[in-house]
Amino acid sequence: MSEEKSLNFIEEIVENDLNSGKYETLVTRFPPEPNGYLHIGHAKAICLNFGLTQKYGGYTNLRFDDTNPVTEKTEYVNSQQEDIRWLGFNWKNELYASDYFDELYGFAVKLIEKGLAYVDESSADEIAALKGTPTEPGQDSPYRNRSIEENLAIFTKMKNGEFPDGAYILRAKIDMASPNMLMRDPIIYRIKHAGHHRTGNKWCIYPMYDFAHGQSDSIEHITHSICTLEYVSHRELYDWFIEKLEIFPSKQYEFARLNLTSTVMSKRKLLQLVNENLVNGWDDPRMPTISGLRRRGFTPKSIREFCERIGIAKRENLIELSLLEFCIREDLNKTANRVMAVLDPIKLVITNYEKGTEDLIGENNPEAENGGGTRVIPFSNELWIEREDFMEVPAKKWFRLAPGAMVRLKFAYIVKCEDFVKDENGNVTEIRCTYIPESKSGSDTSGINVKGTIHWVSAQHAKTAEIRLYDRLFTSETPDAEEGDFKDYLNPESLTVLPQAYIEPALADANLESRYQFIRKGYFCLDKDSTADNLVFNRTVTLKDTFKKPN
RNA sequence: UGUCCGAUAGUAUAAGGGUAGUACAACGGUUUUUGGUACCGUUUGUCUUGGUUCGAAUCCAGGUCGGACAACCA
User: Fold this and answer.
1) What is the pTM for the complete model shown?
2) Among all strands, which nt has the closest C1' to A65 (CA)?
3) Is the CB of A542 under 7 A from strand B?
4) Handedness of CA A379, A385, A391, A397 (dihedral sign)
5) Residue A86 CB closer than 7 angstroms to strand B?
6) What b-and-e string marks burial along A106-135, b requiring 16 or more CB atoms within 10 Å of the CB?
7) What's the Å distance between residue A543 CA and nucleotide B10 C1'?
8) Which of A142, A190, A234, A292 is most buried by its number of CB atoms within 10 A?
9) Residues of A designated as active site
10) How far apart are CA A261 and CA A139, in angstroms?
């Protein structure tokens, strides 16, 4: 179908199945368990499943895999839906494994009637003891040969709530000596007297993952059930149930999950960060969750592009965070308006500027397709500039301000540093410059060329804002692989708050959808914590910086 | 001492018996009123040993290394 771009192995399978006429319509599903927030790893699976049906036709279902009532919540259902929509995908049907509880119960009865399932009253420990190990076969349970009638009778009582949790379980009767541990009479139903987020108290027995997932796929006529590599050994069981139940033969395919440097991706660990207040909630901008990335300022497009670039394969991988950063910079470079903000201010006074104030014109975004337009920027003789743009003793190849040096003020004039003021502690408190009147941006007749251009904000016109700078969450690229607790490798400098930065007046009407490039400082967006008097900006990502800082 | 999955530049991903390519990263250069962008260039690779073949990253066999599997989790 597409000749230019090579296909990943799943696309090849799909194309073959479609071309051979094995299936007329491609049907995939995204099946999260509603027990946490979706993260960038889920985004990979979402882009794969929805991307496949966008490319080849057919449709994708959203199915919540809600077979364990004690971990699942409606809050998570809602957040997961929001995140998928935000990424730009639409599901055909919103479904729940719990929709199939009646049908699944029927499947279990059918298996019992075929002599392929039995009720076991062994304890969890007893079952584990007879399970064997990966290198030794297991042994049959003493209850394995109960009659079909007795199995049926007890299973009915299990369903009717006549037993406490753990008293009985239903097992598939397969092979206790199988080299695949999952085939050693896996548990398929357990008793749990727990309220379910959708079915309430209707049920007190719940199917296990292996007895719900494949059957749910089959009920929905999913043609390609795509999951991650850790389910490879489940495939044999997946196929076994479908064969014995004689239902629609969905097929499972596995790809390697995403791993990203300097973060963790397991739900357990993310939940820990949230519960122990090591981050500020699931949508903390340092989190690899979709909601965290959204709040950080990532765009859906950048995440889709990232998922496209990392590819789909079967080998374990560890993607460098720099690729994600590349994807968001690439998008924002084209779309974000350029504005000026001074994060760490120092005063600059222009001693020969007599005009008081003046309105200058700034280009919003020279990289935008439509040119970006312009805006008014007020200028005056007292400005804030970035402290790091002045060096009392300039380093080699220093393009910025230093005694006697000239720089251009972006969109404005060229200035020359004549003097500077220090306080009693030796800290520079003010820089004094003269400006070149004929060097005005756009009508420069001075003939002077300077190497450096710096950003600034007029002191009397500036607004203030709180700025939050983010860095990687962990100091280790592989916090999962380090010895000890992964939390020992949290980066203490992952969040830096600048309570009072100066921003140009045009920024006062920023909204939560706006994306900005603060010239020379990075890409920023408004945070939801903002109020009318206290604007808060998040730094999404810095600009690429090839300047090697002196000292 | 098992079964299954995998192995191509630093990181990913192509090449499906016939020139090892692409992206990110790194490094260098040109342009630039952002040390940004854009453009150009450089460095770095087929786990290993055999076999089949005129020819192997690709097919076969052995080895090595990495991962998964013993939750009434998904």
Assistant:
1) 0.96
2) B74
3) no
4) negative
5) no
6) ebbbebbeeebbbbbebeeeebeebbbeee
7) 22
8) A292
9) 33, 257, 267
10) 43
Pair A321, A343: CB distance under 8 Å: no
The owner of tokens 């966008």 is: A54
* Listed residue (A39, A537, A41) closest to A297, CA to CA: A537
CB of A22 under 7 A from strand B? no
The CA distance from A481 to A154, in Å, is 46
ipTM over 0.95: yes
Question: From residue A279, how far is each of A79, A276, A473, A493, A542 by CA, in Å?
Answer: 18, 8, 9, 12, 21
d(CA A334, CA A195): 50
Burial class (CB in 10 A: 0-12, 13-18, 19+), A252: buried
CA neighbours closer than 13 Å in the CB half-sphere of residue A512: 8
A448-470 pLDDT, tens digit per residue, is 999 999 999 999 999 999 999 99
Separation between the CA of A518 and the C1’ of B22 (whole angstroms): 32
Number of other CB atoms surrounding residue A355 within 10 Å: 10
End-to-end CA distance of chain A: 55
Nucleotide B10's nearest residue (CA vs C1') is A320
Whether the per-residue pLDDT at A2 is higher than 70: the answer is: no
- Write down the residue that tokens 């439509």 correspond to: A370
> Of chain A residues 355-394, which have a beta carbon within 7 Å of strand B?
365-367
CA of A229 to C1' of B58 (A): 24
